[in-house]
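hi! just following up on the protien thing from before. the input was this:
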Amino acid sequence: MDSRWLSNAYLVADEAGGTAVFVDSGAPLQPLLQAAEDWRVTPTHVLRTHSHPDHVEHEAELGLPVVRHSLETGDLWIDALPTPGHSDDMVCFVINDHAVFSGDTLFKDAVGGGDFQQIKEAVMEVYMPMPHDRRVLPGHTDETTIGREWEENPFVRVWRGIEPEGTEHVRVAGREATLVVWSPDYDGKGKAWVRFEDGTDAIVGGSQVERG
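and the predicted 3d structure came back as:
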């Protein structure tokens, strides 16, 4: 994890077959390169969840093909699923039906900011139908599971209809709004779903929300 952006990079390896891939590159690479050496595996590709700087910073240093599509390499079976919303090019990668690398769409207790409807569709129609024991490796900070987010993620609980929408009056960038959901976020500043007076919904960083 990069200490500035709290962004993650990963190395995923099939130790038996000796093949590996990187997922994103926005964190110090030396621990991952050392792991590849220790495991005696050969990385073949970089999987890019999206092109924001905190996820591609060290991509060129790896000198490997960068992919955003489904592929097989060695004994790794990788499904790329489009999940636009946080960015137009966002994809998640499911590797060997075991783990999903969610980029900046689904986090522990939160979701990514961006186009509200697209984020909701990605979370509820792509992620939540996945097996509940599937590991979720996000683009920032702590991993989680699909089942945990189904049960505990504040956004998911409201979208499922098991928690009511909030009614607190707030201001966002000088505009009057209702705070529908407040959740923790990986940076400690919170994440909010707000509804403006014209009925528009938005997901914004907690630092943009004036409460009280």
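The mean pLDDT is 97.
The first helix runs from residue 30 to 39.
cheers
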